[in-house]
Amino acid sequence: MATKRQVFYSFHFDNDVNRVQLIRNIGILDGNNPVTANEWEEVKRKGDSAIEKWIDDNMKYRSCVIVLIGEQTANRKWVKHEILKAWNEKKGLLGIFIHNINCMRNGKGKKGANPFDFISMSDGSKMSKHVMCYDPNYTDAYNDIAAKIDSWIEQAIKSRK
Predict the structure, then answer these.
(1) Cα(66)–Cα(9) distance, integer angstroms
(2) Could you give all domains of the chain from N- to C-terminal order, each with its CATH number?
(3) Which of 29, 75, 86, 106 is most buried by a 10 A CB count?
(4) Are 16 and 41 in contact (CB under 8 A)?
(5) Is this prediction's pTM over 0.85?
């Protein structure tokens, strides 16, 4: 296994927090501490500038941003903001589809759109041409992610250098 990396998880909180918590529990990464629903509501109540500050504070010192892609992730304003921030700061950046991770509230979900398909680069290409998105084995997505996530992170960081 590679050196433990400091990562930032970008995801749609309301829909995917349970799936994301399972991925955090894999235990091979030093991810940002999960925000509770109450803490996130408090930040949101303070407005966009507070959300942006929270993102800045929590993304600082992270070497990689992992976009955990659920059914509605590609539509989220703050996910797009986090993607652009990671790209502009030359952080490692990757996506992982998490619809096949079993959520204790909702079971498995529908595969969402690739959020990198909706971001255009200065040369007119889509960001998805430059950022890898992984779709884990549908029969055992959790263990597939656990086995491969460290190499995915290292490749994302290497590709940005």
Answers:
(1) 5
(2) 6-160 (3.40.50.450)
(3) 86
(4) no
(5) yes
